[in-house]
């Protein structure tokens, strides 16, 4: 029996939808303002700019040395992805296939960097890295970003690994498959969607990670998001359009990889697949 919704319930639902729509419209308005201003010759007190130009992008590329910044960003990001992928997939396989005393505690320790604010562990970790001489270096930035990326890969990959029937692996070993052959011929094709999703999301996360990178990055190891921060708050007079052009480059770069990642898996399917597997 379905009860009719009272006026209070309708008001609450209307208020929730109104707040959600207001939030989305406000977010879209901010993004639109940044994008429009990045192409504006001059925009003061009018609905639309006085004219349009692309010169701010060329100016930002030269002024903020975006070619080197983008190159360093992707060198750091892909190194983090490779290290997190190798260690994370191996760890996820061990946690998905093995039962041992204290397993839940180990999983909890792996997930802590995802559960607590980055600055909580970022500041003491950055202090240790500076004491080891890694402050401001390429590997310092990589290591501090691996800390939250590794458990993220583990969290994403465990449900995918649990979907694979262990009897398939046992049968392959009976027929003489070694560890390398088992991984390349059996596990890799089955895990490929999950691996791509996890690694692409780590890539997006690392590009957008400001707090940890800011704590350890030096003048030559700044990623795009840290360089954008310095462009906004560093001393000196800079054209607002150039900064907005740099912000658009950052948004487009992040959005491209995020959309690509979502083509492989919907985040809600990670839990749904695990539940479906457990019912069979």
What can you tell me about this protein's structure?
This protein has helices spanning about 5-40, 55-65, 65-95, 105-115, 120-130, 140-160, 165-175, 180-210, 210-215, 225-235, 240-260, 265-280. Helix 3 (about 65-95) packs parallel to helix 6 (about 140-160), helix 8 runs antiparallel to helix 11 and helix 10 runs antiparallel to helix 11. Mean pLDDT is about 85; it is low at about 270-280. It is mainly α. The chain folds into 2 domains: about 5-40; about 55-265, Orthogonal Bundle (MetI-like fold), CATH 1.10.3720.10. The chain has 12 helices and no strands. The two termini are about 30 Å apart. It is globular, with a radius of gyration of 24 Å.
Summarize the structure.
It is found in: Cell inner membrane; Cell membrane. By secondary structure, this protein is an all-alpha fold.
Question: What is the rounded distance between the termini?
Answer: 32 Å
Question: Could you describe the largest sheet, including whether it forms a barrel?
Answer: none
Proportion of residues in β-strands? under 5%
Helix content: over 70%
List the uncertain runs.
Answer: 270-280
Number of helices: 12
What is the overall pLDDT average? 83
What is the radius of gyration computed over CA atoms, rounded to a whole number of angstroms?
24 Å
Please state the second-level CATH architecture of the largest domain. Answer: Orthogonal Bundle
Secondary structure class reads: mainly alpha
Report the CATH topology name of the largest domain: MetI-like fold
Task: Write down the CATH class of the largest domain.
Answer: Mainly Alpha
Shape: globular
User: What's the helix-strand series?
Assistant: HHHHHHHHHHHH
Query: Based on DSSP secondary structure assignment, what is the total number of beta strands?
Result: 0
Count of individual domains: 2
CATH superfamily of the largest domain: MetI-like
């Amino acid at each position: 029996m379905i009860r009719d919704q009272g006026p209070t319930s309708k008001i609450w639902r209307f208020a929730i939808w109104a707040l959600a729509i207001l939030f989305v419209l406000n977010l879209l308005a901010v993004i639109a303002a940044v994008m429009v201003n990045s192409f504006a010759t001059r925009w003061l007190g009018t609905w639309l700019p006085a004219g349009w130009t692309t010169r701010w992008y060329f100016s930002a590329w030269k002024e903020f040395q975006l070619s080197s910044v983008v190159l360093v960003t992707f060198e750091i990001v892909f190194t983090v992805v490779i290290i997190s992928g190798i260690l994370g997939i191996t760890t996820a396989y061990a946690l998905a296939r093995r039962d041992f005393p204290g397993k839940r505690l180990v999983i909890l320790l792996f997930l802590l960097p995802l559960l607590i604010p980055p600055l909580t562990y970022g500041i003491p970790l950055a202090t240790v890295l500076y004491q080891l001489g890694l402050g401001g270096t390429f590997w310092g930035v990589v290591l501090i970003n691996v800390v939250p990326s590794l458990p993220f890969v583990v969290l994403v990959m465990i449900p995918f690994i649990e979907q694979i029937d262990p009897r398939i692996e046992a049968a392959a070993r009976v027929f003489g498959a070694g560890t390398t052959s088992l991984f390349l011929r059996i596990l890799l094709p089955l895990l490929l969607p999950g691996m791509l999703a996890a690694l692409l999301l780590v890539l997006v996360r690392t590009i957008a990670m400001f707090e940890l990178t800011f704590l350890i990055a030096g003048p030559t190891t700044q990623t795009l998001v840290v360089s954008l921060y310095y462009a906004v708050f560093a001393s000196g007079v800079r054209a607002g359009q150039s900064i907005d052009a740099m912000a658009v480059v950052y948004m487009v770069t992040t959005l491209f990889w995020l959309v690509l990642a979502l083509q492989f898996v919907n985040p809600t399917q990670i839990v749904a697949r695990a539940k479906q597997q457990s019912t069979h």
